[in-house]
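Subject: Protein entry, chain in single-letter code together with its fold tokens

Category: Structural biology, sequence-to-fold work with a learned token vocabulary.

Notation: Tokens come from a learned vocabulary of local backbone shapes, not from coordinates.

Start of record: The labelled sequence and token lines come straight after this line.
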Amino acid sequence: MRVDEMPTDGSLRDRLDAILASFGLTTRVGPADSVLIVRAPTANAPAGVPTARPVADTVVPSPPPLAEIVVTASRYRLDRSLVASSATLTHDDIEHSPDVGDDALRPVSRLPGAAGNGFSARVNVRGGEVGETLVTFDGLRLYDPYHLRQFQGVFSTIDPRIVDEMTVYAGVFPAEYGDRLSGVIDIESLDAPSDRYHEVSLSFFNASALSAGRFDAGRGEWVASFRRSNLDLLYSAFSEHAERPRYVDAFAKIGYDVNDRLRVSGNVLVFEDDISLADDVDREERAFSDDRDRYGWLRLDHAPAAKLVGATLLAHSHLSALRRGISAKEGISAGMLEDRRSFAIDSVTSDWTWSPSGNLAVRFGGAISRMDGRYDYRDEVEFDLLFEAAGAPVTAIRSRSIDAQVSGEQHALYGSLLYRPARRVALAAGLRWDEQALDPGERSRTLDPRIGIRFSVTEDTVL
């Protein structure tokens, strides 16, 4: 409906009636001081617009009958942030955040206790290094989840469209999280929003597609997404050099409720970077980076009893990286660098919550992981003679090669107690034990106690 002229006389309600009159519509007073737009009961309505039946000036709809109201809380979020300093970002918060490159982790830098440099998607929490922050996705730890990681990690590898909720711990985090020092970013994947849902997105930086849905009367669901960067296409349009900054990431999961007490889901997460750079000065300097991370895990959500729930993960992660560099500018230097890294990580994680009452919860669990890695490093260099002088070296040749295979294990056990003795007071006490055998012939063990108290002065002020 096109409005060609805006009325200026009368009240706002009179102006609205004047606009609607040419379309055969008018207004009526609705419930709770609302305004309803209805068909105008006039004989001169435009052709094709049926006239309205007489209606009362006030419409009060009768409430629908309710046979039952069921109120449930998430089984795996029971008092998770009872005492810990945390912030939760929902899917809409992330989607509507004005960020470069449609990034899921970049909004974290705006939270209290976190900071970023404005260019990288990596975040420093409580003044710590970026590697001291733990990032988990559906309970699985992600290792350096950033694209272009050799170039400051400009984008994260998580598509914001597959994020349902993200909890950020910028203070002392609960005992179920370990092996990191500064903070935790815990990401939960998107649940299928309807029986069939498909989305295609195109932005300046990325092109992506998302498909989700449910099957078997809602007992099963699937979510699949693929995202590709547009940087290589943009670069090719504006540059004559054969350079290629490209990255892709993909995610897929399928879940099924076996019964009321068991849910099984399979997940796959893949990141790939393919970067090629060149220097047009003397056309001799080049750089190449190829990173590939693959995660696959099976998740079992259990509820063996009404007050006992848990989640168990069986996961395999494979991380590989290749760097190449050729710098052979005539009269300056010669060079070569090739750095190959490959890691395989197998892990089992189990987390449980027992809630005997509404103001008491006990959380406990553990993790076992086996890691195998290989480093294949090569280094060659030869500097040309720049000038002739007595005693000056005639040649400068350097060669280095390192080929190492390492393996190790990590174990962890934890337990924590969450208790609310009064309406305004909450207590949390936890203990975590970690063992690492990553250095040959040496085992490192740590025992970390954690305790916190939360006091609500008012609804808006908490100590």
